Automatic annotation (TrEMBL), chain A:
This is Geranylgeranyl transferase type-2 subunit alpha. It is an enzyme of class 2 (transferase). Catalyzes the transfer of a geranyl-geranyl moiety from geranyl-geranyl pyrophosphate to cysteines occuring in specific C-terminal amino acid sequences. SUPFAM superfamilies: Protein prenylyltransferase. Keywords: Prenyltransferase, Repeat, Transferase. It holds the Pfam family PPTA. GO terms for biological process: prenylation.
UniProtKB/TrEMBL annotation, chain B:
The keyword Transferase applies. It comes from Scheffersomyces spartinae. This is Geranylgeranyl transferase type-2 subunit beta. Catalyzes the transfer of a geranylgeranyl moiety from geranylgeranyl diphosphate to both cysteines of proteins with the C-terminal sequence -XXCC, -XCXC and -CCXX. It is an enzyme of class 2 (transferase).
Amino acid sequence: MVRALKITIITCLSQHGIKRQHVSDAAKSAKIQRDKKKIAHYRNLTDACLDLRDSHTYTQDAYDKTSKLLEENPEFNAIWNYRRDILESWQSNNKDIVTHLLEELNLSMGLLKRFPKCYWIWSHRVWVLFKLESLNKPQWSTELMIVAKMLEYDLRNYHGWSYRRFIVDNIEKAETSATTTANEDEQILALVKINSKEFEYTTSKINNISNFSAWHNRSQLIPKIYKLFQLLKDKSLFPQLQPIFLSPYSLLQHELDLVKTGMYVDADDSSVWLYLSWLLTDKFFVESFESTQNYKDVLLQQLNIVEELNELEKDDHPKGWDNRWCLKAMILIRTLLDDSPENDDLTKNWLKRLIDIDPLRKNKYMDQLNGKLVIVSI
Amino acid sequence: MALVKEKHIQFIKSLNDDVTEQMIEYWLSEHLRLNGIYWGLTAVLLLQEPSTLDQQEVIKFVLKCWDLKQGGFAPFPRHDAHMLSTLSGIQILANYGAWDVLNEKKQDLVKFIKGLQLPNGSFQGDRFGEVDTRFSYNAVSSLAILGELTKDVTEPALEFVLRCQNFDGGFGMVPGAESHAAQVFTCIGFLAITDNLHHIDVDKIGSWLSDRQVESGGLNGRPEKLPDVCYSWWVLSSLAMIGKAHWIDFDKLEQYILSCQDTENGGISDRPDNECDVFHTCFGLTGLSLMNNEKYSMLSIDPIYCMPKEVTKKFDKWKQSTT
């Protein structure tokens, strides 16, 4: 018999960050004893499921067996595949699968709570939601509440945020197709409603300024809502949004205020600085200025704010050091203000200070000093 | 701290011993077995101890993972073919130069991979519709290794990948998704393989990537997250592909990776004193190889394909102009 290869990855199953334990031989033997039963059970269940699959068995019993197996190991994607094939087969035999699809949502929800980073569960859920929609039982709005809960458990969950955008996208599609007979104004109104709620959601999430996922989402929403808001007939329906979304300039001022608060909360947090860099360089804002002078005025105003903060940071630092992010922002802003930053002594001086206080990236700053790098972002 | 090379060899070997099979975790991780073999093989190849794994046994196993129905590699016998395991299977065979075992399977593979491309240029991982820039990388890397990359694939695929770029210069899983260093690797890798790096602002993405290094010397995957050894590969290789590897501190990253070693039983973990696994062992070693392979008597790694350069130099590199 060919000995099967056993290269295995144990910790990936239980996510990263498991403390290292050096187990004694006795403990290892005890584990082997304990695992014997588990292994026998797991292998039996796996073989049973795969045998049923290979014999094209699409029965309730087979379906139940896959539930059991997936509860034990949601990473087993071939079993998710088989499960979907069972549902497809029932559907093509005119069986009502809506109840089962709702059951899928329950199963996957329970599993996501235990395995929030498991790709297969998230993608299965997406498949189920599309199925439900095709059967005129869309669940998009319920899903939005569910994903909000998921993001409460882990506010940076990468899957969670992607899933949220995916759900919103589908709510939009559903809303606009439901009103296809109605006029375009109503569609725009519906879209503003959906996206303004998302905007408010990100506002509530950036209370924790380190939540870059929320800042990122905001950068996606702003140009989108602005465009829609322009087309909206009755803007007074959104009294809170109206002054903010009046123009890219009013938006910029509103966001710069938020950023200012954020940088004062923690000047070492990169999230706000990345967002600031977006605000000061994205063409959505930059191209909307009436004149270059207006743009320069905003840049100068920001430069003052950041320089002031940097002075405070220096006072607080035991060695009187500048703040790394303040300096980076100051360099970016001066570059945006000046056409030939490589000749600017002040910028050079700041870069030299960065080399001292941020030695990890000193070669990058050297490249900047030597003019080998165009400064385009923070 | 020094590299405990012998211990790592022992660790990889131990993953293949009789005890492992008696642990429930071995059975619960079947879905990653082919990937796991690729990681383990990469580690021992870099450490210049290829005989740690039995070549014939490995090749036999890869062939047992062939999914006849789909025409691709599954991660384990009887599982289903997927883009992720298919690339691992191809990489293992390429490392051994074992092309002759593929025979007519090669055309099935090409058909399987190309068949997963969607009208918007993206790739799904299998027939069930999950889209991710990881699969764009899997597809072009697999096809390039097989020498089967064509413009009808790369052009729409490029369009999709570029739509996944964000204001910070990074890339996400799908358009609109937040930048993530592992997705940045797949997208820059995609651009490198398809000879399309000129489409991006390397200074901007380089800055974002260099900011991934934190005080401990380790690299994180997104702003304000903890460092993890696997980003020693995703971030560093991305920087290397755009010629900016010097924008981070090698000494500190080396020290960080070495501090994540289990000096008693071998293996490398995500963070110091955590449980080791073959995934982090592989990407800790690839990181060390990329920074200073000679110092550690390791083979030099190719940042694009994550395979030894002596293997990838034999690939017919794809050029826009020649197609």
